[in-house]
């Protein structure tokens, strides 16, 4: 039961969008998915409120440093994947969530010169690994990639990250109006009207390719190995 969190110290990187695309695609494929909405702005919670009940998806709001571990323990009994959406911050909540994750996805805008928010999370993970002997697998996910971003530019970014030993998810998340519409209309890419949303099929293919890669990286039966006590010491020192 993998726990996957989406972290970038800056807002607007595409965390919430990528988290929801992954969650809804996994649910579409029949997996039971719990989303922990740990962002005080509650975008996923609002999406859930306008969507109504969604098959295979439950959303937990009001997640705090004190409650997150209990939520994960509880949800792990009845879900195949737990996905955490985090605020654009580097605070105790983000640190705790990272420490409890089997994998941290770090969305970085493919076209952004400023990848500082992503780098801050990479530094935080390094600090937790060095100070606490915690191994926190993580990957950068390139997001909002448009046709303006050339294959060569993407290869350059991947090369730079690889030189730092950072894994990059092969499937970049494209810039698609369908990904904005989900938050306005509710539901999923599969409940939208093909006639009304341009390139919906491409958006579905892209989300599916992303989720397929994540599933390969994190098959359902991952054994959790976090050590809570050490983690909370770390949270105190990092916050
Ligand atoms: N792949 C995408 N295609 C189109 N719009 C996107 C995409 N990713 C994010 N956005 C838009 O960019 C804004 C910020 O994205 P969001 O996922 O909320 O980022 P974060 O959670 O990191 O703050 C939102 O308005 C969202 O709709
Ligand atoms: Mg967000």
UniProtKB/TrEMBL annotation:
InterPro entries: DNA_Partitioning_ATPase, P-loop_NTPase, VirC1
Segments traversing the membrane: none
Protein name (record): ParA chromosome partitioning protein
Organism: Agrobacterium albertimagni AOL15
Classification via PANTHER family: COBQ_COBB_MIND_PARA NUCLEOTIDE BINDING DOMAIN-CONTAINING PROTEIN, P-LOOP CONTAINING NUCLEOSIDE TRIPHOSPHATE HYDROLASE
């Amino acid at each position: 039961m993998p726990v996957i969190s989406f972290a970038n110290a800056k807002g607007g990187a595409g965390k919430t969008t990528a988290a929801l695309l992954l969650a809804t695609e996994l649910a579409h494929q029949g997996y039971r998915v719990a989303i922990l909405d740990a962002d005080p702005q509650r975008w996923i919670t609002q999406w859930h409120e306008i969507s109504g009940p969604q098959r295979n998806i439950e959303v937990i709001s009001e997640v705090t440093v004190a409650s997150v571990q209990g939520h994960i323990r509880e949800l792990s009994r009845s879900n195949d994947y737990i996905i955490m959406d985090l605020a654009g911050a580097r605070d105790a909540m983000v640190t705790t969530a990272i420490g409890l994750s089997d994998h941290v996805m770090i969305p970085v805008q493919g076209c952004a010169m400023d990848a500082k928010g992503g780098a801050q999370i990479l530094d935080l993970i390094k600090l937790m690994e060095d100070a606490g002997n915690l191994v926190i697998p993580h990957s950068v996910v390139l997001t909002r990639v448009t046709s303006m971003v050339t294959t060569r530019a993407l290869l350059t970014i991947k090369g730079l990250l690889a030189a730092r030993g950072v894994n990059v998810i092969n499937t970049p998340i494209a810039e698609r109006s369908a990904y904005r519409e989900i938050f306005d209309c509710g539901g999923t890419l599969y409940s939208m009207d093909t006639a009304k949303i341009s390139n919906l099929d491409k958006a579905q293919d892209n989300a599916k390719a992303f989720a397929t890669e994540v599933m390969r990286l994190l098959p359902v039966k991952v054994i959790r190995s976090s050590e809570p006590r050490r983690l909370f010491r770390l949270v105190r020192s990092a916050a």
